[in-house]
Amino acid sequence: MSTEAVERRLHNALWWAKVQSAGPLEVDPDTPAVAGLTRAVAPDGSSVWLVPTLPSGAGHGVLDELDAPPVAVEQPNETARILAICVACCWTDRSAPAWPGSTGTLAQIRSVYAGMRGRPEQSSDLTLIIGSLRRLHATHWLLWNDKAGEVRLGPRVITWTAADLSTLRDLCRHLPDPPPPILSTQPPAEPVSDTALPTATAPPDATLRSATAPSDTALPSATAPSGDEGEADE
Length: 234
Description:
Blueprint: H1 3-22, E1 25-27, E2 37-41, E3 48-52, H2 60-65, H3 76-90, E4 104-105, H4 106-117, H5 123-138, E5 142-145, E6 150-153, H6 162-173, H7 204-212, H8 226-233
Antiparallel strand pairs: 1-3, 2-3, 4-6, 5-6
């Protein structure tokens, strides 16, 4: 075996060890390709995710051999429900690939969750939603920004097959439509400048009349009864 082939195998083995230890890795775009790892380019092109490409239909024995067993999470049904909702919120162009998708918000997720359950939001719902979002972020199915309350699909979704995407499209059609997202990165509305309005200028004779004529519009100051002051302060 040539020296180049040995170095290539060592390179691939090193990156596979890293991925098996830490899951999908975010690296510089100029990182060389690795056999068996799919490259998922970030939306802004500043980084690339390396995601394991597992054999189609691989059973537990193969996954164990690759040291990539299925991810076990708490409350799997609730977590799967939140993942489905995030797909509906973030995969807005369903004729395109799911990755990288668009940014969704916690407000959207809460709205769809309440509609999916067919009841008004309850106090415990937010705890369940946040817990599921954090579990899905830890396993790289989602990229959840806790501070901004915003979410994107994670790099693992790049491994979904055409059959998976077809099933998800059908699922999204049966979910309530999310409201439009209001993102933290959206620019604020531009204020209307006072200088854009024409300045009204009274003619000289009108100014003179207003200065000399007695005012018949002055009204006595209205004084609220003492009992209303407490209500106004509340």
